[in-house]
């Protein structure tokens, strides 16, 4: 364009006018930016600005970050498709989940896993990893420096050896990716010896532009305290809730520092541990919580600025559902009024809040205090009173 204008000098006045218009437009866009900022992903519901760490907004980023929280029951497996077309897999479910994960990744177009992370050597995180390693080209493998004597762990080590791979020690301060607007940093473990295996969990923060995800494995309160003390920024738009929603993770101080808009709990229906625990759900009030037991696989897509979410399971009670099996939930735009602002609640006489929803049989129900789902906070339907819930055709259930 500049070469052309050099040749045709008669265009200079037009170009000067264009330049003035562009400057004017830039002035306007900075106004627009501040408006967007207040209604955008970096704003919490009370309208206060959150700390941003990305590049100045308005810069056009090329590519999307896609994060898939796979529904693998009471286990973790998270596929991170990076905007540079690389793939990261954080955990690989339990021993039975290997083939499911291989199929899912293949369906998502994955041929190479550039970064494979085993957060810690428990079976519900590395169980399917040997199968994954055998089925894909693997780049770098990251695991914390801790071992167990289980067959599961030995199978993973054997697969790593078979492929001629090395294990990179996952520890705080390690930068997996450090490329301007795209960052993948390891925030934990900070220590080298823990009584509880969960605290060895590799905690990873992935940032694309203005949007951050925090993947915590099964890190518990001790690790959370160490991360807080380390002074590293924990702020993230999306938090993978630690240890399947156990009360031993997601401490109030940690959550306050992360300040997420969205939280995802990887958890199996009817698990033996009562996950997610009621205390954790209570602490997460006000955050948009997704659960793989209720929502199926949860997928976040971001251009580095806006966040869209889709869920694998059809939830007939949720707005925007088509009723078709496997239909994705209507994307929730983070800049819009948060769905939890639209919730109404049943006040059950001071004991807590009751959630109304539609169960898998299509019945309208709400959960009573002894139900494991009692404290669930979901962007579904809530009622101000039990009378209102009954009037809408819901009935109380115990389980
Ligand atoms: Zn676990």
How would you characterize the overall build of this protein?
With 399 residues, the chain is α/β, with parallel strands linked by helices. The protein folds into two domains: 65-333, Ribonuclease Z/Hydroxyacylglutathione hydrolase-like (Metallo-beta-lactamase, Chain A, 4-Layer Sandwich); 343-397, no CATH class. Helix content is 26%, strand content 23%. The chain is built from twelve helices and 20 strands. It has an eight-stranded mixed sheet with strand order 6-5-4-3-2-1-14-15, with helices on one face. A seven-stranded mixed sheet has the order 7-8-9-10-11-12-13. α3 crosses α5 and α5 packs parallel to α6 (151-162). The longest helix is centred in the N-terminal third of the chain and has 28 residues, at 12-39. Residues 1-9, 18-56, 314-355 and 374-381 have low confidence and may be disordered. Bound molecules: zinc ion. Residues 34-55 have a biased composition (Polar residues). It comes from Desulfallas thermosapovorans DSM 6562. Residues 74-269 form the Metallo-beta-lactamase domain. Pfam families: Lactamase_B. This is Competence protein ComEC.
